[in-house]
Amino acid sequence: MNLSSLKPAAGATKTRKRIGRGPGSGLGGTSTRGHKGAKARSGYKQKTGFEGGQMPMQRRLPKFGFKNMNRVEYKAINLTTLQQLAEEKNLSKIGLEELRNAGFISKSQLVKILAKGELKAKVDVEAHAFSKTAEEAIKATGGTATKL
């Protein structure tokens, strides 16, 4: 076997239609475009969303909602996750670097600590935001919650 003898599997390739190459090909004349009209001519382009004169979808449906350009999105990290990290890696301080190394957040994400689960370990936590109950839970175990 060598490179020059390689062929695709039988039925894997099709020959392309050669349109507009004379009447003998069977695809000459109108070149599969039908007779006359804008669609038969070169340069034809339909407007985006045009539905043949019917009221287009984006005009039939009502306007809805808005996107707040000042929204700040946080990656939620629960107390369960902090407990798991503290146990596995034997940490007393959990900051962004520890969360990043563990694969919970990416470089640019902001972090908010939420109170799902329970925290037993005494841990000093650094994050961009805390829920009230999460902050209380961290302080109840003797740790600190520092906002960045």
How would you explain this protein's 3D organization?
By secondary structure, this protein is α/β, with parallel strands linked by helices. The chain is built from 4 helices and 6 strands. It has a 3-stranded parallel beta sheet with strand order 1-3-5. A 3-stranded parallel beta sheet has the order 2-4-6. The chain is elongated and about 90 Å long. The model has no long low-confidence stretch (mean pLDDT 94).
Keywords:
148 residues; alpha/beta; 3-stranded parallel sheet; 4 helices; elongated
Record the SSE blueprint.
Elements: H1 57-60, E1 74-78, H2 79-89, E2 93-94, H3 96-101, E3 110-114, E4 124-127, E5 129-130, H4 132-140, E6 145-147
Q: Would you kindly provide a brief summary of this structure?
A:
The chain has 148 residues and is an alpha/beta fold. The chain has helices at residues 57-60, 79-89, 96-101, 132-140; strands spanning 74-78, 93-94, 110-114, 124-127, 129-130, 145-147.
> Distance between the terminal alpha carbons, to the nearest Å?
64 Å
Strand fraction band?
5-15%
Number of helices: 4
Number of DSSP-assigned strands: 6
Helix vs. strand class = alpha/beta
What kind of sheet is the major sheet?
Answer: 3 strands, parallel
What is the approximate shape? elongated
